[in-house]
Amino acid sequence: MALRFKNSFTRTKEEFRPIDEGKVRMYTCGPTVYNYAHIGNFRTYMFEDLLRRYLKYKGYDVTQVMNLTDIDDKTIRDSQKEGVSLKEFTDRYTKAFFEDIDSLGIERAEYYPPATEHIPEMVVLIQKLVENGLAYEVDGNYYFRISAFKDYGKLAHIDMDGLKAGARVAADEYEKDSVSDFALWKAWDEADGDVYWETELGKGRPGWHIECSAMSMKYLGETFDIHTGGVDNMFPHHENEIAQSEGATGKKFVNFWMHSEYLIVEGRRMSKSAGNFYTLRDLMEKGFSGVAVRYLLLSTHYRQQLNFTLTGLDAARKALERYLDFISNLADYVGGVSSGGEAEQVIRKVKSGFEDALDDDLNISGAMGVIYDFIRDINRLKAEDRLSIEERDQALETIRKIDTVLNFTYNEANLDIDEEIDSLIAQRTEARKNKDFALADKIRDDLIARGIILEDTAQGVKWKRKV
RNA sequence: GGCGGCAUAGCCAAGUGGUAAGGCGGAGGUCUGCAAAACCUCUAUUCCCCAGUUCGAAUCUGGGUGCCGCCUCCA
What is the interface pTM, i.e. ipTM, of the complex? Predict the structure, then answer.
């Protein structure tokens, strides 16, 4: 089956073909570094991680760019509130962002351009828009003239004439030609303090949308393959990016637009302004691991709203445990007789099922379904001692290949041997030998309280950390 | 007012014309000192409601009900 993605632009599933054979260039809207990112943000980054990992699994050479918005109203406001420089402020949250994506096993993009390091590129782009008659200046502010760009609204399918002139239009934007025109460059005012750039456009700072146009085209070219973000970015942000980019180059900006749905919490919309959000750090403080959060965020299809609950996170943790135990127990399996071709069939089935599902617009639920079928089938052969060493190795190789996409095993490196635990296990083994089960069980319970789970197997005592 | 999405078991969720995947939870069993892990069996006569098309519909059409999102800087 061919790889197909739902293209938000055409609103249909289309076969994916990159511009350059074997290479994919993608731009993923990144964080505004003014706070710890919440799990809704990470839901989107997780979808993008799945996308890039699956593209790599399919053999594509992926170049991904994720911007870091380190200059906007919020970063200025909050850094001033704290009395620290913009740089010091945004550096702190940039660092936190990278720590968090590491905790979640999200693979690094090739480029993380910060907006503040690309002011000259933005200025050039704005000048070009002025030249093309698509931008105008009022008191040092530059705006994009939407009425001059005839395709405006084609991504979000919004008819500008039909827009309700509503209460959400800020009162202080009266100087624009049209309320819908958006800012490309904002002239300095006192509230900006020492945050400004002296440029050919004057003293000021960029608008929000322009950074994505400038930086995406710098690193990926004027036309590239995939652009992603949360659905809320579709309008106006992505619509504006198209207007800015195509208005400047006259070329098609992006071939495939992909948008992830919201994560909601207990059935309600989560947002930074509503204050009902969980950061990754909040969940880790409650004792959940990054990989459990990863499992939850990854295992719901990206175009489906994900209703986050702590109960759901716990269910995800348990399902993940089954997956991890499968791999770990399979690796320890000493082998039995050959299954006579059954294992091979099971392996073939999971490979094709996994790929067919993900080829179909990243249908992760379908993919997880066939993986759990595979786990049960192999475990059954194991239970019947009908899995040879060779077959075991093939099964292991298969699940590990699959795991390059899912990446649920990245915490395994943490399972380093702890001398104290070994010594307690030895004490317990001795107690069991002496039929002192009360002591043996106490040691086991104490370890469980510390997140260490013991299993008595035919090959001896195994231990693992709670995920 | 405009645009769009969703409704499948206690919970999460796949399935877009051929007779309901998978996970969590629950019940019983095998194994075990007891557990854990694993395996086996069971857990939706049915997919929000009504009507229609069809040999056949969770899937298509029409109508209804309920929930949600976007409509100018929120992933």
Answer: 0.93
